[in-house]
Design brief:
The chain has one domain. The model has no long low-confidence stretch (mean pLDDT about 90). The N and C termini lie far apart (about 40 Å). It contains 1 helix and no strands. By secondary structure, the protein is an all-alpha fold.
């Protein structure tokens, strides 16, 4: 179960990073 929680956090972090990179390209 702890691994699943860690995966959720990692996925959310990667999603935020992707959004930031896309914003950087747009700006």
């Amino acid at each position: 179960m702890p691994n699943d929680a860690g995966l959720q956090v990692f996925l959310s972090l990667s999603e935020v990073v992707t959004l930031v990179i896309l914003l950087a390209f747009v700006l």
